[in-house]
Amino acid sequence: MNIDERIPMPPRRWMTRLGLPVLVIGAATGLLLGTMWSSIAPARSVPVASAIVRDVDAPIEPVSDSAGTADALVQAPGWVEPDPFGVYAGALVEGVVEDVLVLEGDSVTAGQPVATLVDDEARIAVQRAKANVLHLQAELLMTEAERDQVPVRITAARTRVAELVDEIDRKEPLVEQGAVAAGPVERLKIRLESARAEVKRLELEQNRLDASVMDQQAHLAVGEAERDDALLRLERMTVRSPIDGVVIERLISPGSVIRFGNGEHSSHVVHIYRPDKLQVRADVPLASAA
């Protein structure tokens, strides 16, 4: 007897073999139909009303073609922008932003502060520049006082020369007559030469002091320019609006670093537009434009 004939065959489960695959295929078909239903189903008719914003004082008349049929106004997406362009309030010095004083939508006036930068170093630079100016002014005053004393000394030296010349002129005839010894007169002539040399030295000293005064005046002018530059830098630590307008957007936040040459808006603080200078840009379809 064959062994295969003694082993009974297991019962056939038709539900598992056929029902389960049919159920999976049906679920997949239903899911596919559900996702495609919006494309298969017929389109629903929906009424559409055009909304057009216009000035009530300027009525819009419908445009008629050559056949006398009134055409509908063209509706197109677009946006409103400054005309001809917006204005940026930018920082004029590099630094770290301490505070931004305006928000989007705020009205600003020309010269109004819109942001401040950290100004500790700028204030110290102003104090240093002012102290340097005071120092240079003091040096100039001392040099001018010294120079102003030289003419008096020159006058005294020239007077001494005149006295010696007069004394020599009076004693030389006496020497020729033998009434006075020649030695004292010769010593007077030596003293005269020394007095004339002193006059020459004082005249050169006056020229030197005049040049020194001019040099110190130049140094003082440089110091005053540096002081003014420090004051200007301190003033520019406050960023101000260049025009009257409304803030479109803020481009920085407190703690931002202003650095020139680091991008298009690296020094810009806020973007401003003028409400009375606006224009509309719209993407009109070519067919509607024709």
Describe this structure as you would to a colleague.
By secondary structure, the protein is an alpha+beta fold. Among the domains are: 3-40; 121-235. It is 51% helix and 17% strand. The protein contains five helices and twelve strands. The protein has helices at residues 3-6, 14-40, 120-177, 182-235, 286-289; strands spanning 63-64, 70-71, 78-82, 87-90, 95-100, 107-108, 113-117, 238-240, 245-250, 257-258, 268-273, 278-282. Strands 4-11-9-6 form a four-stranded antiparallel beta sheet, with no helix packed on it. A hairpin with a 5-residue loop joins β1 and β2. α3 (120-177) runs antiparallel to α4 (182-235). The mean pLDDT is 82.
Write the layout of secondary structure elements.
Blueprint: H1 3-6, H2 14-40, E1 63-64, E2 70-71, E3 78-82, E4 87-90, E5 95-100, E6 107-108, E7 113-117, H3 120-177, H4 182-235, E8 238-240, E9 245-250, E10 257-258, E11 268-273, E12 278-282, H5 286-289
Antiparallel strand pairs: 1-2, 3-12, 4-11, 5-7, 5-10, 6-9, 7-8, 9-11
Helix pairs in contact: 3-4
